[in-house]
Amino acid sequence: MNFDAPPLETVTIDDLEALGVGAGILGTGGGGHPRVGKLRLRTIFEDPTYPDAVEVIRPEDLSADATVASVGGMGAPTIGVEKFPNGREEIRSLDAIETASGRTVDALIPGEIGGVNSIVPLCVGAMTGLPVLDADGMGRAFPELQMDTFFIYGHPVNYAAISDERGNTITYQDVDSAERLESFARAATVDMGGRAGYAFPLMDGSFVADYSILDTLSLAHELGTAVLAAQTDGRDPIETACEVVGGTQLFTGKVTDVYRRNEAGFANGEVTLAELDGTEDITIEFQNEFLVARNDEGDVLASVPDLICLVDKDTGLPITTDALRYGQRVTVLGVPAPALLRTDDALDVIGPEAFGYDLTYEPLRVE
Amino acid sequence: MNFDAPPLETVTIDDLEALGVGAGILGTGGGGHPRVGKLRLRTIFEDPTYPDAVEVIRPEDLSADATVASVGGMGAPTIGVEKFPNGREEIRSLDAIETASGRTVDALIPGEIGGVNSIVPLCVGAMTGLPVLDADGMGRAFPELQMDTFFIYGHPVNYAAISDERGNTITYQDVDSAERLESFARAATVDMGGRAGYAFPLMDGSFVADYSILDTLSLAHELGTAVLAAQTDGRDPIETACEVVGGTQLFTGKVTDVYRRNEAGFANGEVTLAELDGTEDITIEFQNEFLVARNDEGDVLASVPDLICLVDKDTGLPITTDALRYGQRVTVLGVPAPALLRTDDALDVIGPEAFGYDLTYEPLRVE
Description:
- The structure is a homodimer.
- Chain A is an alpha+beta fold.
- In chain A, 29% of the residues lie in helices and 29% in strands.
- Chain A has two domains: 205 residues, CV3147-like fold, CATH 3.40.1610.10; 116 residues, CV3147-like (Beta Barrel).
- In chain A, helix 1 packs antiparallel against helix 2, helix 1 crosses helix 9 and helix 2 runs parallel beside helix 5.
- Strand 8 of chain A pairs antiparallel with strand 8 of chain B.
């Protein structure tokens, strides 16, 4: 990434639009629809009960033994756009793990970057006064919680909680693996109607400093700002986006087919794109997020953990998997994954084979 | 019931055999295999770390605002006989709801009467020093947790927890119905391998006094004592059992068929019995517990909530649904359910229609 903008110090209502756009692009089709995240945070900022700004900090601003938790939404994005939260799901989850552990959380961190899940920690920060770290556990979005760098790099599943809009709250402790927490919490999320708020795990500041993907809120903000500015200043929004994130354009075409099904708490499926002035097409498979893009000869253009991002070909605005529609004109961006996602340990959990594909990860190269 | 024996004041190792037999019969095929419950409590009594006796008390021994919780095992009995616990599942669950609520439990109560689930509270009592109430939430065993009188009579699902032998612990709070807790906890129990220990809910002493089935530990003990004594003093164990519990003999025959499957965390199926010296047969359907007994013309001999208990025709010892085998010679006892299980409120939850049968409950009458 070619990111050298000044880091975010606060988030106010003026940052919402840019953050939503940038996080929506980096969310690789998942992480929630940007409109949903923006609406939640806008509602809070417009409520006089709460402050007008959320503090954004860096891991080095925390003491090594400060307590950090991630908060966000779990479930299928297709459900997330229809089943709105009551807004206190993550706070109840946070309360539950604080009570269970006897610890007090000092800062929040997004579990992933996406239109909802990078915004929810800011909502909780605004409501609780807690600062939010300029970092996250994925540097993008992934469908399952063991795919957080926190768990990939060995953090114990000490405490976790989920809560739904009716107040049903479930706390998990001493769970023997992140995969088991995923299984427990996914089944309960389905039972809750397909969408819940979460808080997990309780991490020390030093762990977060070592094993989170850094500067991702600032990156999302810068990306969104650049794309929105390009729409009016005559630059090409997509070229601008590629410059900010160090990505490349993989394909531009029209959505000719979308196959999507909600199963086991995920929005799974595939989308086919056809060239506007040509005969080539490509297919992208997704599980909440875009996982593998192939051309019509079956060659892999990009795969997890590298980012496959769909944007409107004219505006550069993100298109999430829940919003895919026949006829959309889209550009597919490929963005090399952060280094922490490309290690052997990471590829075991978030490489194409971890998603059931019989293919070896080939790192995306951008000239 | 014709029960007028002196109430139990303590349970020691000398009571185990009788309690296991009596609770096994009253468990109506479920509530766990008596051998499993006895083994757990015997192991604790033989451990010098723990006292030699557990105190048994009546609801009137508790203050109105004392805190009571039920503890026991959840899952399919067929799995419970093979997947042994590590013994601390229920204590971890109890710790979890105490921490979540900030309350301290003063006494334990069995959630149901059965070969395991009336014994587990005694195990936890022995390990923690807490007294155990001579009462329970079913007066028998039922497959699902909303079938506890606590929930039938409106106690909120304030706190609940389950834990498995690996230490995975899940706490539920503010759950909006007992049916939803059943759904959450059943799915998690299946994920835990089909068997978990539980603690729930946190009740006041006054609620337990009004809405539990009273004297059931004493009844189980008296029933077991009488059956065991009859085996050696020449009386008929089965007639003796009927006298103690106010029941009747519905049928005696040989097991000619058992259809059993583990599905969705339950041991479901049906058993067919044929007369030893005749041509009649009967079929009994079960879901962990025996639910409906019909003769070969389809007439209902007995149904939930009345107790259908299978015992060995010679010894009077209980036969649980997991232990049914071709060729067993068994007698089927019918025992009228306690009054709290026969109200309209109760029948909505534990009547035959609640189990999906198209039949109206006809109270079993014993001449």
